Each structure stands twice: as structure tokens, then as C-alpha cells.
Hints:
Blueprint: H1 2-25, H2 29-57, H3 59-70, H4 72-102, H5 107-134
Helix pairs in contact: 1-2, 2-3, 4-5
Amino acid sequence: MKKKMVQNTLLLLLGVISVLVAILLLEGKWAGLLSGFGAMVASLSGVRIYSEQLFKRNPELKRRHDITENDERNVQLNNAAKAKVYEFKMWPFLTFFMVLLLAETQLWIMLVYVGFYILDFFIYLWSLNRLMNEM
């Protein structure tokens, strides 16, 4: 448990440092790439740290979370939703990656990529919600 906390704290620091380096020292594409990477790492590790602290203070919540997470029905619904997302994103993302390889990428192109990724996540949530309501 402590090993995970130390690991997540180090990742949080790495993310914050990456964003600061990108803002203060870099320009252009590399600044955007490094700041996006740093924000992602910092956000994910921050959520993990917060969750662990919340579960530490409330063991009943942790128990319910573990039961819900490992419930066979929820696992099957999660897998079905992931399958739908994979089918959706397979061809558009391959085409888009080819465009990125062949063109000089600009900020708006990267923002389109981020938009596709966010759309991908919302389709997953919509599919999961629909499958849960059907059963």
C-alpha cells in the first residue's frame, strides 16, 4: 500500500514538473506534447492518491467498491462497452494517424485528436449505461 502511494506521489510530481518545464522552457509542438503528457500523469496519479485516502478513511466504501468492481455482471457489461468503443475507433484513428504522419501537425490537428479521444470515452460511457439499463 505504501509502495503505491510513493509511486503515485512521484508520478504526480513528474507530471507537475513536466507541465512547468513545458510552460517555462519550451515552445511549439514539444511544449504542447509535454504539457499534455504532464497534465495527464498528474491528473491520474492525483485521483489515485485521493481515492486511496478516501478508502483509508472509509473502509465500508472500499469494500463496496471492490465488490462492485469485481462483480461478474459489471465486468461483462464493461467488456461489452469496450468492444463497442474499439469497433468505433479502429478505422477513424488509423486514418487519422496516417494524416499525422504525412502532414506537418499543427495545434488544431492535435485538438481534433483530443476531441476524438474524448468522444471515444463518452461513447464507452453511453454504451455501458445503455447495457446496464437493458439488464
